[in-house]
Amino acid sequence: MASVLTVGDIAPEFTLPGDGGSTIALSSYRGKKVVLYFYPKDDTAGCTKEAIEFNGLKAEFEKANTVIIGMSPDSAKSHDKFKTKYDLTFPIAADEDKAALEAYGVWVEKSMYGRKYMGVERTTVLIGADGHILAIWPKVKVDGHAAEVLKAAQTS
After folding, report:
1. What is the pTM of this model?
2. Which residue of 10, 22, 40, 61 is most buried, as measured by CB atoms within 10 A?
3. Is residue 69 among the annotated active site residues?
4. Domains in the chain with CATH codes
């Protein structure tokens, strides 16, 4: 696993398949702030709620010169279904080989009912227009999170 990222670090670059047959490259958003949020799985309760909350604030993020990108280890095909089902309007990157998830330190060992397994730790990173990390929210609790990230984007 990569070393833990901190505020001020340069955000690790990635180029990944996205929904709708697109390619999502962090470098293509230089000049704008980026909310990069990592979530475990498409179409599960917490992940769906988080996506809908970010989507509902998209216009406000745009006013703050900020784009939203979701990322999970699901396939681009899975992301297409997820976006269509919930009318999501921001790009979602598919990191099936988990290289970007590892670079951001969010592919971690988890435990449920005593069983250990690897999974995504729900995390959000706010990246500045220059590519430096402005803020990190580890172990995100979904309720109200998108609004908290929006406030940070508006004031940075």
Report:
1. 0.93
2. 61
3. no
4. 15-155 (3.40.30.10)
